[in-house]
Design brief:
- The protein is built from two helices and no strands.
- It is an all-alpha fold.
- Helix 1 packs antiparallel against helix 2.
- The relative contact order is 0.17.
Amino acid sequence: MFSESAAVDSLTRKEASERMAQVFAIRPLDALDGNRLNVRNHDGKQLMRR
């Protein structure tokens, strides 16, 4: 088993935003928003503004 899959937790939108770096939190938040294709630039931790 890989260490990153050793624990699973269900999070609300707010909890995901608070617990995860912005660049990682945006993925589950995008998934909850529907069928849009979202492409974003990031620096590895934060989303880049256009």
